[in-house]
Amino acid sequence: MIRPQDLLCPRPEGLYCPPGDFYVDPVRPVARAVITHGHADHARAGHDTVLATAETLKIMAERYGADFAQARQAGAYGEAVARDAVEVTLVPAGHVLGSAQAVVRWKGLTMVVSGDYKRRRDPTCAAFEPVPCDVFITEATFGLPVFRHPDDGTEIARLLRSVAQFPERSHLVGAYALGKAQRIIRLLREAGWDRTIHVHGALERLNGLYERHGIDLGPMAPATSATKQDFAGEIVIAPPSATQDRWSRRFPDPVIAFASGWMQVRARARQRGVELPLVISDHADWDELTATVAELQPGELWITHGREEALARWCELQGVPARALALVGYEDDDDG
Amino acid sequence: MRAFADLLDRLSLTGSRNAKLTLLRDYLRQTPDPDRGWALAALTGDLSFDAAKPAFIRKAVEARMDAQLFRWSYDYVGDLAETVALVWPARPGANREPELSEVVDALRGATRADVQKLIEGWLDALAPTGRWALLKLLTGGLRVGLSARLAKQAAADVGPVPVAEVEELWHALHAPYEDLFAWLEGRSERPSADNPGRFRPAMLAQAIDEAVDLGKLDPADHAAEWKWDGIRVQLVNEGGVRRLYTRTGDDISRTFPDVVDALRDEGVIDGELLVLREGKVASFADLQQRLNRKAVDARLLAAFPAAVRAYDLLAEGEQDTRTLGFAERRARLEAFVARQASPRIDLSPLQPFQSWAELAALRADPPAGDPQAAEGLMIKRWDSIYQAGRPKGPWFKWKRDPMLIDAVLMYAQRGHGKRSSFYSDYTFGVWTRDAGGARILTPVGKAYFGFTDEELKGIDKFVRDNTVDRFGPVRSVRAEPDAGLVFEVAFEGLQRSSRHKSGIAMRFPRISRIRWDKPPGEADDLASLERMLEQPGERDQ
Ligand SMILES: [Zn+2]
Ligand SMILES: [Zn+2]
């Protein structure tokens, strides 16, 4: 009798697959790694070999330099790759460019490591594909019923309304450098904002990478040098930390906005000095998490990180066996 | 409801006064009657409900979802209305979002039992922000950091007209204020302010600049009187209606029936609300015993007898006296107060003087008795009419010098709005001894103004370079006898306080100078503050 824990089991380095001898998103350097996506807490440098999508490999090279691993193997979406006795298939996760679920099959057992994912449309990456499985391994970053992300179009409309209402101020939008920033820019373009968008230097390389993958971000300029008044009425995108830093002082009386699922809770916005919270997340919210479990009907649900207890409680009420792995090393703060 | 909810949502996170005004003015311009009027009433405190108790809301949500999941959610968010707004498991159905006016109308006609069904229906129809606004409104917890005065200013900006005009009308108007907006938008005549018992916008004084103003003013043209240390009020008896208003037009009649009853003749007095025992002014803390109570009883009235000390007469009988000169109003006031013959209304005496030097001496060294507890002096032109607002020239306030201490910066916190990238809120302390006799700092106050932008940059850099610990937005700063930063702190008075570890609370503290030169070891100690405790201060600007 094959048990799921024979195929995947939590270890301090991350989720380990003994029959395939690899880790998924290991937090320490290992011999063989499968990386779901390019966020720094999932994709670390220093492994011997890495299997990931071509986009994720490029993102890692951009971040860590071309020699971030001794050997790199690109897996196309939907293409099975052998790892010893185990078959690994990367399937879109809808999280950021190149993000994938790792579908692991062995002796008739299918387990899906979803990595980070969301279920709603994102113009900058491929949509999540549900894969029937025996065990679904999910994140639970927003695993509490209070997290119910509104439609991103309404959030962008709120930003644009504020820009129109305060033409003498600049709008400084904090957005995570990988994924969120580009998604915000794309959503602004879709909403008809065709002016130059000013970007913090830390975003430039990843913006370029997205553009090389066919995601048109429109006219952009570095948010540097010019006099204060030049930014009045403009939208500036920066990493979240920069909006609170001395860097932000070059802008005229900025409206500090922050695009994150955490902005759902007013106290969080207040704590960060955010005047215009934009609830836009690259993670599944409570409704998406529970709907995904209901759709997939897995034999078991494993929860890697986040607010495990609430999602486990929901599974208990639904009669789905759930298990919290309590993996450590996956930040849940800025990557919201 | 959606526009109102979005407005509240933004206001709740907006710090700057100007930005709040823009948000509210735009809302009032863009929202149709009667919704905008109800919104204005909600923000000025003229519309409040007590339709839903927290226990009912909790029960309603727990009937729809697992109690454990709700508890975790509530623990995380920390605010009941916000939690319920977010987690509410809406039942699908043909629900249309209610407008604010529909909510108001429905609640007025509804019985207690209907109310609960209505609320659940609305929660089903609304988006989370709308639910939040609805629950805040229904539970009477609508606090978005906006004063009634600012709301009236935003309404005045719709015209635009001076805010004093809106204030004067205010008590003649009723929500949803369709006549007010019609006038502001030029669609009709100004509504009549002829509402017996209404509030008249107060006339305020400018702070005097001794170096500039005194040289230009002729002492013979001016009267002087003490500025008493209570709260400025307006006492009204008109057309059989008796009222007591604060300086901003809040009706506090119910809290002060003893004062309201004392005005027997018809007229309107501008004065200072004080606790008076045998004609002598008691401390501000005594007045607070009365101000903080909603319900009053005979014991409280006897223990803290309130009174109005009269400065001015705005109406006498049917006559509006505001267009008369101060000299004439004053003569009438003296006779009017004498006729009331009540210990609950007395006269603020004028202080005769020949020269500014004489007045300066009086201010520096007030005579024994009540003047020692005054905030300073008021200087008024004998010919000044009573004008709403703070006109330049006719009235000056000449406050006593603030108190000063040297204190040491202990903690710094990030500011709000355009200061959010700066550490601009400072907690400072003075020296004391701990149980073991060691010299330690104890916090005595917080200040976030009194410095220039340039100085702020300097302090901010100091904070960043001298951080010893962090907790959330707060940094603990190096503060030792020979390393740290000293502020000269100015404040208007001290009070005993059990809520502060030092046992002392400061009134209106602000940074008056940054003492880069001074070693923290030479800053003041707690004992010197305790010696200042009994001296007077000022408030109610
Ligand atoms: Zn991620
Ligand atoms: Zn993650």
CATH-assigned fold name of the domain at 206-399 in chain B = D-amino Acid Aminotransferase, Chain A, domain 1
> Whole-Å distance between the termini of chain A?
40 Å
Helix content of chain B: 25-40%
Per CATH, the architecture of the largest domain in chain A is 4-Layer Sandwich
Average pLDDT of chain B works out at 89
Strand content of chain B: 15-25%
Question: What general outline of chain B do the C-alpha atoms trace?
Answer: globular
Beta-strand portion of chain A reads 15-25%
**Low-confidence parts of chain A:** none
Task: Find the structural class of chain B using helix and strand composition.
Answer: alpha+beta
Could you characterize the architecture of this molecule?
The complex is a heterodimer of chains A (336) and B (541). Helices cover 24% and strands 24% of the residues of chain A. Chain A contains nine helices and 19 strands. Chain A has helices spanning 4-7, 54-64, 152-165, 180-190, 204-212, 240-243, 266-271, 286-296, 308-318, and strands spanning 9-11, 14-17, 22-24, 32-34, 49-52, 71-74, 80-83, 86-92, 100-106, 109-113, 135-140, 171-174, 197-199, 220-222, 235-238, 255-259, 276-278, 300-306, 322-324. In chain A, the strands form three sheets. In chain A, strands 7-8-9-10-11-18-19 form a seven-stranded mixed beta sheet, with helices on one face. Chain A has a six-stranded mixed beta sheet with strand order 1-2-3-4-5-6. By secondary structure, chain B is of the alpha+beta class. Among the domains of chain B are: 206-399, D-amino Acid Aminotransferase, Chain A, domain 1 (2-Layer Sandwich); 403-534, Beta Barrel (OB fold (Dihydrolipoamide Acetyltransferase, E2P)), CATH 2.40.50. Chain B is 36% helix and 23% strand. Chain B has helices at 2-13, 17-30, 35-44, 54-62, 67-77, 80-87, 100-109, 112-125, 128-138, 148-158, 163-170, 178-184, 210-216, 257-262, 284-291, 298-303, 326-340, 356-364, 453-465, 526-532; strands spanning 206-207, 222-227, 231-238, 241-246, 267-277, 280-281, 306-316, 319-320, 345-347, 376-381, 395-399, 403-414, 423-433, 439-447, 467-471, 474-477, 486-491, 493-496, 504-507, 510-515. In chain B, strand 18 and strand 19 form a beta hairpin. Chain B is globular, with a radius of gyration of 27 Å. Mean pLDDT of chain B is 89; it is low at 535-541. At the A-B interface, helix 3, helix 7 and helix 9 of A face helix 1, helix 2, helix 5 and helix 6 of B. One zinc ion binds next to loops of chain A.
